[in-house]
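Quick look at the format.
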Amino acid sequence: MKRSRLVPALLTLAVALGATPAMADGASGSGAPKKKNSDDSTSTDSGDKSGFKDGVADGSAKYAAGDYAGAVAAFQKAVEAAPKNPLGHYFLGEAQLKAGNLTEAEAAWNRASLAATEKDAALRAKILFCLADLKERQKKWDDARAAWQVYLDWGTKYPEAKAYAGSGTSRQGMIDAAQKQDKAYEVVRQRIAATKNGGVFTDLSKQPPAPATPPAAAPAH
């Protein structure tokens, strides 16, 4: 599936930087997840502020160095220190993704989404963006389309989140195209299967003919 956007790794990195939605939508960026002071969190329970801050700082440094397993461990400590702070779960998801752990990344972002409130509108928009993008990576087209709709709905309800409607809508359009392409490929696969069985199947609008039944052998005299 072709996408008119940054390659997934760079897009994810841009989001991890704490970039604005405009950067996540197509501008370039590089570096590790930026640390946010735990005192700025709008979480209802910031937990152990010192432990959270140290975990995020350590995780950011390891992320920048390419030690994604180490970043995962550090961000997990930040989450343990302040489990209701959505930022820790968000960073943990970024590190899990870079480490190749897609299931764990999704779980972290789901927790971040639950922890983020309307007071964290911009952060939750980024989280929803990550979740929708992840569904695309997994080629779960129906889930991805639904996830982009959640992103769009959030942006409509909370304009201060500065979600980009054009981005979500265009991604839904690309998903529709991918699904259409998959259906076309399925017809081709049927054609290939038919020819392997000795049949001749050239009309893609029709089902392949059933294999001919060989004539019965003449009775022996």
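Next, a different chain entirely:
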Amino acid sequence: MNAASMTAAKVVTIAFCLMLATIGLVPAAHAGQWSERTEIQFSAPVEIPGVVLQPGTYWFVLSSDQNDRNIVEVFDAKQNKVYATLMTIPTRRQRSTAKTEIVLVKRHNSPDALWKWYYPGRRTGHEFTYPTHEEAQLRRDAKRVLFATPMSSTAVGNSAG
């Protein structure tokens, strides 16, 4: 190999290594968006599967498990206490909004149930799964009274997605 071809090979190798290094940094730059970390305040009790959240501030965060983007953890305001770790199923909405959107099912003798959560700027969200008997009732109630609320919340990270 002559000197010119060795230099060209070194340049290609260095460029390739720089490209790999840059790709490795991308997930860290979007960590808030990756986790969909969102602060939500409730002014009345709200039920999530297995837990009634009292009025207050909570953090909704996707699990750090990169293989399962359907696990949502719910923390207290200081992110010290985990209230629930929940399996969700993907759900889609017509169009994204610039704010967090939650879908609550209005119930008569129980707190409203949190059914769906959408991160700002995304069309795909998270539908919370309830036990079979509750799920059937929620779906019946949702046909009668269902409302979605764009909320003022703190979503950490960019909202494009």
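The chain has two domains: 1-30, 36-155.

See the schema section for token definitions.
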